[in-house]
Amino acid sequence: MILLLEELGWPDVLEYLQHDDRLMLVVGSTEQHGRHLGFGSDVCVPWEIGRRLSERTGVLLAPPLNYGMSLHHLGFPGSLSLRPSTLASVIQDLLESAYEHGFRHVLLLNGHGGNTAAIQTALAEVLYELTDLEVRLGSWWTEPAAKSVLDGAFGDELPGHSDAGETSVVLAVRPDTVRLERAHYSPGAPKVSFLTRQAFYEHYPHGVIGADPRRASAEVGEQALAAAVEAYAGVLDAWKAG
């Protein structure tokens, strides 16, 4: 059974907290993902991971945060961004709210690399104040087993964006949103030390960084997803056992 906060009432949460203090929160973005993927790609992948984890472990899954730190994507129409300080404040507020109700173990399922610094800033402050709160930041593409799957299939070009690896995972989760016939990428583009709006659009005008997305495979994506789920299930199980 998948346990979604959005489908419960407060008496249900009160009952849940009597036997469990674990919570999952998805943090994504609304940003361009090349010509071939949708703006919700950074939400749908960690959301699917969270759903699978909830079904497997019984841990409560909160509604996703659909916006992230995407300033470097604003050269592409439709991308919407929070400032890093705004995202950090939102994460801090959500964690403090959860703590107030009795949640003591929170798995943050992050879908966008641009969110990482802001989330870490929030955690530095929150965990300094709330010393008995435990938070694990999980960015699925950095999990060793998931990264190994993608590296084995497409080489070690990660981290990328809307490339063969990410496209594979979206194919496994939401194939209806993938339009590979429109995919283009920028082979030979230089690695940029810091991605600004201008640098992104200049060097990666199709919105893709990394391996040719047309090499994507739903089978590879499913393997990477399964590896990430396995890793995070271990985290949740250890919290329960503790």
Folded structure, characterized:
It is a single chain. The chain is α/β, with parallel strands linked by helices. The protein has one domain: 3-Layer(aba) Sandwich (Rossmann fold). It contains eight helices and four strands, in the order αβαβαβαβαααα. The chain has helices at residues 10-17, 41-57, 84-101, 116-129, 144-154, 164-173, 197-203, 218-241, and strands at 22-27, 60-61, 105-110, 134-139. It has a four-stranded parallel sheet, with helices on both faces. Helix 2 (41-57) links the parallel strand 1 (22-27) and strand 2 (60-61). Helix 2 (41-57) packs across helix 8 (218-241), helix 5 runs antiparallel to helix 8 (218-241) and helix 6 (164-173) packs across helix 8. The longest helix has 24 residues, at 218-241.
Q: Kindly provide the name of the CATH class.
A: Alpha Beta
**Portion of residues in helices?**
40-55%
With helices defined by DSSP (H or I, 4 residues minimum), what is the helix count?
A: 8
Task: Please outline the major beta sheet.
Answer: 4 strands, parallel
> Quick one: how many beta strands?
4
| CATH second-level architecture | 3-Layer(aba) Sandwich
**CATH topology, what is it called?**
Rossmann fold
Order of helices and strands: HEHEHEHEHHHH
Overall average residue pLDDT: 96
Give, in spatial order, the strands making up the sheet with the most strands. Answer: 2-1-3-4
Shape: globular
Nearest-angstrom radius of gyration? 18 Å
The name of the CATH superfamily reads Creatininase
Beta-strand percent range = 5-15%
Index terms:
242 residues, alpha/beta, four-stranded parallel β-sheet, globular
